[in-house]
Structure prediction request, 2048 residues.
Amino acid sequence: MWILANIFFQCILNVFSEDLRSSLYFVNASVQEVVFASTTGTSVPCPAAGAAPASLRWYLATGEEIYDVPGIRHVHPNGTLQIFHFPPSSFSNLIHDNTYYCTAENPSGKIRSQDVHIKAVLREPYTVRVEDQKAMRGNVAVFKCIIPPSVEAYITVVSWEKDTMSINAEMSRFLITSTGALYILDVQIEDGLYNYRCMTRHRYTGETRQSNSARLFVSDPTNSAPNILDGFERREVMASHRVELPCKASGHPVPKYRWLKDNRPLEPDTRFRQSVTGLLIERAQPSDTGGYVCEVWNSYGNAEVVGRLLVKEPLKAVVSPRKVKGSVGSQVSLSCSVTGSEEYELSWYRNGELIYPGNSVRMTGDNRENLVMAGMAKSDGGAYQCFARNGKMSAQDFVQVILEDGTPKILSSFSEKVFNINEFVSLACTVKGTPEPRVAWLLDDEPVSRDSRHRMSHFTNAEGHVISHLNISHTHVPDGGVYRCTCNNSAGAVSYQARINVRGPASIRPMKNLTAIAGRDMYIHCRVIGYPYYSIKWYKDSNLLPYNHRQRAFENNGTLKLYDVQKDVDEGEYTCHVLVQPQLSTHQSVHVSVKVPPAIHPFEFPRFSIGQRVFIPCVVMSGDQPVFITWQKDGRPIPASLSVTIDNIDFTSSLRISNLSLLHNGNYTCIARNQAAAVEHQSQLIVRVPPKFVVQPKDQDGIYGKAVILNCSAEGYPVPTIQWKYSKVGLDGGVVDGNRSSQRTNNSGAGVPQFQPIALNSGFRVQVLVNGSLLIKHVLEEDSGYYLCKVSNDVGADVSKSMYLNVKIPAMITSYPNTTLATQGEEKKMSCTAHGEKPIMVRWEKEERIINPETSRYVVTVKEVADEVISTLQIMPTVREDSGFFSCHAINSYGEDRGIIQLTVQEPPDPPEVEIREVKDRTIALRWTMGFDGNSPITGFDIESKNKSASWDTAQKTKDVSPQLNQATIIDLHPSSTYNIRMFAKNLIGKSEPSNELTITTDEAAPDGPPQEVQLEALSSQSIRVSWRAPKKHLQNGAIRGYQVGYREYSSGGNYQFSVISMETTGDNSESLILDNLKKFTQYGVVVQASNSAGTGPSSAEVSSTTLEDVPSRPPENVQATASSPEIISLSWLTPPKEALNGNLLGFRVIYWANLPDGELGEIRNVTTSKPSLELDGLEKYTNYSIQVLTFTRAGDGVRSEQIYTRTKEDVPGPPAGVKAAAASNSVVFVSWLPPLKLNGIIRKYTVFCSNPHPTVSSEFEAAPDVFFYRIPNLSRTRQYSIWVVAVTAAGRGNASDIITIKPLAEAPARILTFNGTVTTPWMRDIVLPCKAVGDPAPTVKWLKETNGSPAPAVIDSRRSVHGNGSLVIRTVKAEDSGNYTCVASNSFGPDKIILNLQVQVPPDQPRLTVTKTTTTSITLSWIPGDNGGSSIRGYILQYSEDNSEQWGNYAISPSERSYRLENLKCGTWYKFTLTAQNAVGPGRISEIIEAKTHGKEPQYSKDQELFTSINATRVRLNLVGWNNGGCPITSFTLEYRPVESPAWTTAQRTSLTKSYILYDLQEATWYELQMKVYNSAGFAEKRVKFATLSYDGSTIAPLVRAPNGPPEGSSSGNEGLKMMVTISCVLVGIVLVFTLLLVLRRRRREQRLKRLRDAKSLAEMLMSKNTRPAETINKQQQTLRMHIDIPRAQLLIEERDTMETVDDRSTVLLTDNDFGETQKQKSSTVTHTVHYQSLSQATGPLVDVSDARPGTSKSNPTARRTAKAGPAARNRYASQWTLNRPHPPVSAHTLSTDWRLPTPRVAGSVDKESDSYSVSPSQDTDRARSSMVSTESASSTYEELARAYEHAKMEEQLRHAKFTITECFISDTSSEQMTAGTNDYTDSLTSSTPSESGICRFTASPPKPQDVSRVMNMAVPKAHRPGGELVHLPPYLRMDFLLNRGMSCSGTSRGGASGEGAMGQACLEPQKSRSLKRPSRMAPPTPTEAPQASRDPVAQWQPGSAATLPHREGSELAQAAKLSTSQESLLDSRGHLKPSSNPYAKSYTLV
Prediction:
């Protein structure tokens, strides 16, 4: 394992280049130091890398590339440097303690990492120790772990131990600092009883050390000056780290501290904090560096700690700019910014190589931080790095310098154009390049001259581009031609040309004669000026060119090109002809001369040797004369000193050398020149010299692990190559003789060596130096052998010489034990094995002291085995002092090595040092300190105790006490007796000597004085703080351990008993306690008692105080309200009683709001008054107001009174809100109006006025108050009438409406009298949207509904219809019916329309309930309302229950409140709460169930209190003061006791605790068992103890014996009766235990069931929350059966009837209305119908898709309602059963079942009587059903979890194929329920019922309609009524569809019916009897009966108040139903059975 230290390299640097495909970067943070253990090795990845595969190499800091050393060091291909683990003998500073760096190189450059120091840590012996310390009591003690300096940097203090216990953070007085010191704060006397030791761990080797044990000597405080215990001299910390500057001193009085920085007081800074240990600095900053002084002083002197803090910042280097792009020849400047230190050394590197200043390189700045490089060459590109170094810290940064090609590039230019004479011409060229290019302009290859008409300008833009302009003003014809811009710089040149034409006569510029070079190409230009011209042609000798392949004429620009010019053919005169007009041409001629260049015949120098002669000719084969020939050597003229002769003759030249030497080596060049050109030819002359040795190799020695150079060098020319070869074995193949010294002289047996080439690529360990010598950097043993140096250069014979390398092995320890054990007194041997060159000397040392083998106890023996030396150290005998570190040293002439052995001598432990920890009257607590453990773990302790006068042979012994303990208590001692106690320690070696003996006497007594200065302070309305001082010192009689505080309501008579609270003392002289849960604004009396370990002292004098005020707990009483006018209500009330005010009354607050006629609530207002009466004015007229009154004190508002309702008086109404009039014919006009916005009373009538002319009243008509239109007949056709309307109340006639005018018409267009507006209605009611239209002829009416923003015809179905009067009727209105409805009326003379906005109100959403405050007796709840559903919240229902109770209470809460406090709750008890909001529609969803617990817990007995105050022979006094009530008053306690050997208990029960209790009439000298149970409302606590009464003489008796001995002989007959009694008792006890166990199991099962029942609301709430169904989904499911589910306690009773038999798959079940009996029967008995349904198979999950067909319906054919599609042939035969009850005389029960079992067939002709409803009740097998109850255990809000719960339920009951889907659930809003007989065609016949809890769902069903005699229904579905008969339907929160699947067709219809057309999931029910009779194979369909006529009229069923189809219910029955439906009680009785319902219409099917 290796550890990376001091990591602070910078973040990952990625340099991306758009011009380079690869870049260099650092892949991770660099490391500056790697420290590792030699036993583990380490791996260091190369920090540098490249995007393209980079070459990674490691180097030493000296720049030398490292090499592999097999088994020691290796560089992996991925660049990781691995140092292998190694023995200490292989340590090498070059490898294991050196500085390395790594480089990464790719085509983009080369970077090097920071220097990494790699250091190996060797294992070496060391010990840590702790010194004894002295401290004064109450002061501070400091222990330090002293570590040897050689290993201090690697050792960490990991823990401190106090005896055998580890010191942790829970010990508040003990603190371990960051430096490993142990601080003991507030030193106590007992701190000196322990041993202290530290534990350390080596950071790299993992070795742990335990120090010696040190003691703390504690003395009493004495006046003394401060003495420094802990300080510092220098601290270094990195910035942003935390640093601790220790400064601690002892002294008395306790010293004070002050800190100074740089001799100034510390400035206030939140980062500086004085801690217990000194000065703590958070997030240290560099500015914190400085000198710190800690001044310590007290009144007797002073001292100081002086130290220096150095805050270091990590070095950081940043090179700028970050991206550098330049060009060849440019200048590059880099800057390196260094932070983190002001002193550093800076270096620059290019591609890993150090940069030195030079001619083109400058470094400026104080630290050479600026690098400037001029004239950059292409090779200067790459990675540039800046390195900053400061000591061991370093940092670097790098950038990549990219040099681009700076050759000029033309970016934009001009094109060929035509200009007129005198026009202005501007030509431009834009060029880029580096350095900045120069631009020149040419015209027809001649420079453009600058004059007044020709101007040139140049400038450089922001992008560095050069823009050059040539401007020509007043152009002339000669200005035309080819213009060229030429751009050049040091990197190259570029040009561009184009022709500029100037209109004018065409002509040719004069041409100069030209000279051409033979063999090259040539251009001849014909420069034409003027424009236009028609053609340009070239002629030579009157021949039109071209006429051969070497000629090409460019007619467009007049250029002639000659390829490969030849003198004979191409020399002559050329003529250019220009056609300037169709019949006019001009021409000019040019003469071309051809010159022929010289051609040299090639020559080469042959091979020459030194001293030979040379002659070389140079012949010019062709070329014009004259020719001049010269010679050069190596590019320079040949020096005369070389004696080279040159002979020139005509066209030849020769070179002669008479005596060759090495100086003649070189390249010789012959150069021939004439007028055409100069040519040259070069050849190399090499003078060769054969090789010869300069230094010959010779035999030499090499030392293993060191470097060696085998010298060999030679000379010759060419420079000879040196090859080394190696041979290990001789000719015979044998290994070379190991005696290397005689190898060369005695090799006749070895034979001739066989040399093989040496591989030089094996990690660079073996290298050939420049001079040819062979370097072996790390010599290995296998390197010994013959080496051959061979020299060759292909000149003469090769030379070679061999030598022998003899490898000498230094002494090495190859084998030794790291650790070994020995037993004291026995002999011990330790051996070391050494290897190396002989002779080897082995020396033994013990902890750096050389062992003298001549001593009596040490014997050293040495023997040689093969080439190894084994040295053995024998110790006889071993003693304790031999434990430690031994080392064996092996030494020879070439080196030395050592091995370290840790010897542990084991022996029996030293005895422990025993001390007294605590003495009580009957117990002695011991503490012991363990001494030396004998180097073997302690296995246990033995404790012996005896009376002082007895001998140790009779001592009481306690054996094998756990070694983890350091204390024990000896019990059952006598008071005031003297004992001797001693101990033994044991380990695996043996037992120690006895410890020191203790002599102890037991004694102590209770306090004699009460606490002093008892004071009371009221903190709140229910709490008082009690404070006091300890009793007087001389009356305490020991250390005060605690106090008992008694309190009671104040009474002068003292009749009230005190409530007692126990508390432990804090140790201060002043104590306090807060009394909670007191009565508000009440006076209390308090007394206090002190107690110590012996008992409780007397009480203090009683003092009294009064609790603070609180809000009133009761509302004002007898609130009366009277309306005194239309706008005033007078109020009066009575003030609550004084005990309910909880304080001083400040006044009253009245809260009131209006209940508006539309059902909404008005603004909630409040007003305060100090009197018990008030007048509310400014109210709305004739408006019903809700009023509440409360009282308030300084603490706040109290409880509100119940709402009272008062209506203001009537007044005259306002004007009608609107008036319409429309002509119906030529004499009739219809008038309609809206009621007034302000009714101000009950409208008695409306008066319609008609006048002609206005205001003369011609007619006056009256209309009923509920009529809003009137027909005015007998009007004149030609007259125009004014009409207005007035409303009338009892107070008089109101204001008139607006006046409208109308004229009767014969052909009246359609007009609608109904007004536009909004219609609001609760859901599930019937609503009529009126649309009364008139016109002549009578108009037609149609309705539209707005869908997706556009009106569409309204859907007319069974739920929606249009009456003859044009009104739209919507039955059972739903939320999706909301929207804009348009009524359009039209006739032949015109249309009219109105828009009605229908708003459907729904129940409100659930509120969000939270707990805001809890006390011991109250819980305050607050909530946030949810959506009100379109109707104002009318109020809230808060339900609460104890956690384990099924009794729920509820409170009705005003809608204006947002919080509620429940008072008088049980202390320390969990409660559950739910909240439901109500609006005009009904109750909404229940909130989530939340839980809260009142304050308080079970009683507890104080550990510091002794239960027994006194014990004598017949009486025991119990100390009951130790019972703590846990915050809840103790209600009772039970006390039982018995003799240990007696089974009968004696019970003493009391209702309240007193200070003590006495047990009388006990048997003397007897062991008793006592158990106590103390109860409060939060629970109970139990305490069991055993005690023994004294003998008659006051002595104690023997302890209980665990295993009594067998009876003596002769006593067996006397014990037979006892044995029989014991046997019978055991049997009886066993029976009682079994019976008790059964009761417990039954109770537990019942509790589990109740727990499942409590999850009901959450389950129902989860079901309801999933009803976010789109309208189309609801419409789609209109054809499915919807069931109303009620889950009041969420339990599902599932039964199996084993008596039923299986039927075949073709069974048919029919259910008719005859099966349900009559409507009204006796209530005393019921007939039971059991409905079984067969469930569909489901393999994929508990929830499945629901079919679109419900039982009794079909999409395609209504007649197919009695059919069902056949299901699978094989199914599990399981079914769930409903038992249906109805009122009926006692007759036989019938079963409706779709089970696959064969029940008893019905008796032919038996028909059930009709019944309008049935209910679900427990079946006969209720107990069995209860036993199979299933729990969902799911109350989450996710549908998936509910699905899993259902699956779990089905699997538990083996209903794995059950299939049903919950689709809707409804919340009831009626107080009773009635069932209609069947369904109507327009509705799905949902039922309504009020569940036992709001928001609960219920399965329900009803019989078919009696009037539906034409069809046989296979399941009846109910419909609900309100008590008043108003039709209503419930909210579809959830829907459940049961798919009743049968494997056959229904036989209830004709056999030819479409029996197979039903969708999957249809089923039929058939009537069956539950008696065990055989069923007939076929059944005849029943005969339907006639239905009442009243039920056949569908219109009559919808008239309000009509109940023709309902059964009659008596008033008492309705009241009983309402009572049951609103009950919050459980459905289970006390025995866990379902309660029988007295409501015959209850239809509850419960589900879990």
Observations:
- The first strand starts at residue 2 and ends at 5.
- Confidence is low (pLDDT under 50) at residues 1-22, 730-749, 1603-1614, 1663-2048.
- Residues 1616-1654 form the longest helix (39 residues).
